[in-house]
Amino acid sequence: MKRRHLHLILTVALIGVLLLVLWWADRHLGEFPLRVARTGAIYVVAAVAYNLVNGITGQFSLGPNGFMALGGYTTALLILPLQQKQFVWFLEPQMWPFNSFSFPWYLFGLALLLAGVVGALGALVVGIPSFRLRGDYLAIATFGFGEIIFVLANNLIPLTNGPLGMKGIPEYASVFWCFGTAIVATLVVSNIANSSFGRAMKAVRDDEVAAEAMGVNVFRTKMLAFVTSGFFGGVAGGLLASLITTISPTLFTFAMTFNLLIIIVLGGLGSITGSVVTGLGFAIMSEVLRVVEAPIDLGPIHIPGVAGMRMVVFSVLLILLMIFYRRGLFGQFELSWDWVLSVLRATRGVRKWKQERKTESS
Amino acid sequence: MTLETLIQQLMNGISLGSLYALIAIGYTMVYGILRLINFAHSDIFMVGAYFAFFFVAVFHLPWAVSAILAVVLTAAVGMIVDRAAYRPVRNAPRISALITAVGVSFFLENLGLVTVGARPKAFQRPDVMSKVVPIGPAAVSGVSIWVPILSLALLALLLFIVHRTKVGMAMRSVSTDIETTRLMGVDVDRVISYTFAIGSALAAAGGIMWACKYPQINPLMGIYPGWKAFTAAVVGGIGNITGAMIGGFLIGLVEIMTVAVLPGLSGYRDGIIFTLLLVFLLIRPTGILGEPLKEKV
């Protein structure tokens, strides 16, 4: 059997097992753990795509919150029931055509797809001016883009309902939708990273001038990475809107990008499987870390709870990671079938060797 | 628009622009030397305003003393940030330094939220600032007059330091070629430290004057002025000090005048500046005074 076929079979088997686990979890776990898991899966979607830009192509983007906002609003506008729309837009009428239709539940996938397309278009608009230049202009342009989206969301009341946002968005984002999207995003991004496009991206990251000299179209390579990340950013935003059922401009502030930045740095810039692990881990960790915001009683010493302490901890963590542990948990290493198989083979070899030694001594 | 409001708005725009210019210089100097976008600069600006606030409101020091103490302390904070966070990642890939800068920025903001709280505090400004001064037919508030005057004085002082002193010469040398400068026997780390001190001192002065102009301070007050000042630095030509000044005044005037001429757009005020940034990146990425980027292979 060819190695590629083996890998394919193993991947399909893993996804099958994962779906079984999800099916079990969906029936037996409580509302709260499932919610954390779904949030984690959404982080994975956004982080994996973000890592394609920051880690694999080496371009510093601060854009995910803007793309997620685009996707979140698109999805919310498409799936919000008509009755709810009339209820939400009570100050000014909602603009055509969104006031005349609403997607039923079986078109949720289409809504997410359109959210992704809108996110990708946003990435196209920011990418074209920024990638004509070398250097860090992307960081500034993407931040500016996020702010423009924020300003528009606050002011275009017929489209977005302004600062009040929308509520009563149907909660279609089940465990299966969230994890299904996460699996698709991971597969798509890792396939891009392992293709010739991906090698071009890594070449651009390591030495842009050399890559160009070798015939890599730098502009197109960067655009491909960035537009892909815009697409999945939009999808992740759509899922998030449906998960928490309300959206307003403040949901998609820079703090969102900051969380994703921690995820990809902790997982290892350039490691897709690293982002998957830390994306899920981050959702759990930010619940666990609520401890630092709760009041602490140490016998006579009483420390009152401080809201916002978690973000202080996270920012210190990010700085320390950058200074002392720059490669993150995974570095640029990927959990691959080759690696898993070689580890298995090695442990079997050791066991065999131990057995032989035992029989020799006895 | 009447002549009266035109004068008022012009003065308003110039004073806002001079503040942007003060902040923009910190960005452009650090970028010129380290090729690093110092995201924390906008929060250093906030720290400066808070120092002044505490000296005036809590320790009841005279106004001028508080302002000077705040500027000096903020300069020290800038040096500490450089020493503690930026120096260890100086030889790391560029993206690591940028991520560190984002981390420092978020750290300062959230530390502020945790320690002094999110509730805005009322900033007591000196009486000179709130006095109304007549200019021609218009009555202009003292802030709009004093802020540009003080800022221009500080900018002149900065130009003197950069072009007429030994430290300034070292700075210019480091920004041209860091390796050669090191070989000439200059302590590059110390020059970078001074650069952070000067940039932070100017940001603190800007922060204090900002608080005089808009007398409400909160831990997130630096974000928007900071990014607009950065836009100003890019528009003027990043790495170029005179460019940052021109860019600052331009951004301040554009921001005030668009809203003055088209009041319907006032909600879009912040969006206009960032759109201007994208447009500038598209048509003239090197800024007004910037030289075309040279490539070193």
Summarize the structure.
The complex is a heterodimer of chains A (362) and B (297). Chain A has helices at residues 3-28, 31-56, 64-79, 82-88, 108-131, 137-155, 157-160, 175-194, 196-206, 208-213, 218-244, 254-267, 272-288, 309-324, 337-361; strands spanning 166-167, 246-247, 296-298, 301-303. Chain A is mainly alpha-helical and 362 residues long.
Strand order of the largest sheet of chain B: 1-4
Task: Describe the largest sheet of chain B.
Answer: 2 strands, antiparallel
Count of spatially separate domains of chain B: 1
Number of helices of chain A: 15
| Oligomeric state of shown chains | heterodimer
How would you explain this protein's 3D organization?
The complex is a heterodimer of chains A (362) and B (297). Chain A has 362 residues and is an all-alpha fold. Helix content of chain A is 71%, strand content 3%. Chain A folds into two domains: 14-331, ABC transporter involved in vitamin B12 uptake, BtuC, CATH 1.10.3470; 336-362. Chain A has helices spanning 3-28, 31-56, 64-79, 82-88, 108-131, 137-155, 157-160, 175-194, 196-206, 208-213, 218-244, 254-267, 272-288, 309-324, 337-361; strands spanning 166-167, 246-247, 296-298, 301-303. Chain A has a two-stranded antiparallel sheet. In chain A, strands 3-4 form a two-stranded antiparallel ribbon. Chain A is globular and about 85 Å long. The model of chain B has no long low-confidence stretch (mean pLDDT 89). In chain B, helix 1 packs across helix 7 (166-176), helix 10 (223-236) packs across helix 11 and helix 10 (223-236) packs parallel to helix 12. Chain B has one domain (3-221). Chain B has 297 residues and is mainly alpha-helical. Chain B contains twelve helices and four strands; from the N terminus they run H-H-H-H-E-H-E-E-H-H-H-H-E-H-H-H. Chain B has a two-stranded antiparallel ribbon with strand order 1-4. A two-stranded antiparallel ribbon of chain B has the order 2-3. In chain B, a hairpin with a 2-residue loop joins strand 2 (132-135) and strand 3 (138-141). Classes of the chains: A mainly alpha (362), B mainly alpha (297).
